[in-house]
Design brief:
The chain has 271 residues and is an alpha+beta fold. The chain contains six helices and ten strands; from the N terminus they run βαββαβββαβββααβα. The chain folds into two domains: 102 residues, 2-Layer Sandwich (Alpha-Beta Plaits), CATH 3.30.70; 153 residues, Pseudouridine synthase I, catalytic domain, C-terminal subdomain (Alpha-Beta Plaits, 2-Layer Sandwich), CATH 3.30.70.
Length: 271
């Protein structure tokens, strides 16, 4: 009997025509397309495990997944064959045998996302950017984004359905830069909540248009901490009730891209 192997796949995809990573009953998913390709290649129905879900319309250049197999095909052969079987909007950029305990989601220590806002019309990039033609104050948006770094409760910056097991995330880095007629935001954190980056972007854009002050980011982030302290008896006055409706709108998915998933030294080196 062949040994059971753990195979890591590094993936990129254009998420425009997908319902997201996870298999859904109402459309194409990245996970579903890979499962069908693996069935044709290996003869078994294998559901790959991704580092996390990406929303409908969200792209990736650094998604990571893993699956188990007893196949004797080399990792290089698996990559080559999958790229021949997968549709043109999904590509396997690397495949490798990894340690048996590697888990694409639970072994990850951080992820990095990018969001692109185009300030002028682009026909070629239209599926990869949020076209926003109003004037934006980049300095104000940078000031607002600076509040995000560190460990905070992101109650106001996520979809509460389903309710997350924790609202706490540790943002390691975030920054804005201008590149030609695009404003590009990148953020890295130990974990992300549902729609978190897109709600952050929607809120920062409101800051950029002058609809809310940059300091409002501190109010939205501190609300969860104030509420928790109140429940512990740390405050005598009721904490403000701040939730999802207090933050900005959810930015369009098409501007969002998963850049990479990072692992500790034991799991980051491909064998």
């Amino acid at each position: 009997m062949a040994d059971r192997r753990t195979i890591r796949l590094d993936l990129e995809y254009d998420g425009t025509d997908f319902v997201g990573w996870q298999v859904q009953p109402n459309g194409r998913s990245i996970q579903g397309e890979i499962s069908r390709a693996l069935k044709r290649l290996l003869g078994d129905w294998i559901v790959p495990v991704g580092s996390g879900r990406t929303d409908s319309g969200t792209h990736a250049v650094g998604q990571v997944a893993h699956f188990h197999t007893e196949s004797g095909h080399s990792a290089a052969r698996i990559r080559q064959a999958l790229n021949g079987l997968l549709p043109p909007d999904i590509a396997v950029t690397a495949a490798a045998d990894v340690e048996a305990d590697f888990h694409a989601r639970y072994s990850a220590i951080s992820k990095r996302y990018r969001y692109r806002i185009a300030t002028a019309k682009s026909a070629v990039q239209r599926r990869q950017v949020w076209h926003f033609f109003r004037s934006l104050d980049l300095d104000a948006m940078r000031l607002g984004a600076s509040a995000l770094v560190g460990k905070h409760r992101f109650d106001a910056f996520c979809n509460h359905r389903p309710m997350p097991d924790s609202f706490i995330c540790n943002v390691l880095e975030c920054c804005w830069r201008q590149q030609g007629e695009e404003l590009i935001f990148e953020i890295e954190a130990n974990r992300f909540l549902r729609h978190m980056v897109r709600i952050i972007i929607g809120t920062l854009v409101e800051i950029g248009t002058g609809r809310r002050p940059a300091r409002d980011m501190y109010r939205l982030l501190d609300a969860g901490e104030s509420k928790r302290a109140s429940l512990r008896g740390g405050e005598t006055s009721p904490a403000p009730v701040i939730g999802r409706s207090d933050a900005g709108p959810t930015a369009p998915a098409r501007g969002l891209c998963l850049l990479g998933v990072f692992y500790d030294s034991r799991h980051s080196n491909l064998r």
